[in-house]
Specification:
There is one protein chain. With 189 residues, the chain is of the alpha/beta class. The chain is 40% helix and 16% strand. The chain contains 6 helices and 6 strands. Strands 1, 2, 3, 4, 5 and 6 form a 6-stranded parallel sheet that branches.
Length: 189
Amino acid sequence: MPRLAVIIASSRPGRLAGPVAEWFVSLARQRDDFEIDVVDLAEVGLPFLDEPNHPRLRNYVHDHTKAWSSRVEAADAFVIVTPEYNFGMPAILKNALDFLHQEWAHKPVAFVSYGGISAGTRSVQMTKQVVTTLRMIPVTTAVSIPFVHQSLDDSGRLVANEVMTDTATAVLDELAALEQALRPLRAAA
């Protein structure tokens, strides 16, 4: 079964990435297209890029990079759950992407973004520039949650509306189709 890595791309104290990711992962686990790997970048704990060699060489010297490489290599598709920081992507996400190169190639990526009025969409647009350079294929559909605080219940759980749920389903459908279509490219690499 293909593996979907759901990357939580925030490490800020009090972050809302957890409830957003939990909601999305619970939907994904109701299906049978993917094995799910939840990757919390705050727990992965990569230092600021510290490899002496360019990532495209895959000549890693640090154990944390080797472990990160193995985890990304094992994934067949990605969903990045991201907020927007100052009109851009979180630094922890950029750093995690930059640590590797070939491991990302020919894999589909989707986005679940959240925030205020812009719903994290500027973060997604910035991240798309980076992932396409890594030869990842962004799916067209994205879940964008504006005013995310209004979607949380008293216990801090995300309560999705019909649009959010329908869009998340469309994201998973598109990821599953694209993952299958890209398999020959990954196999050839």
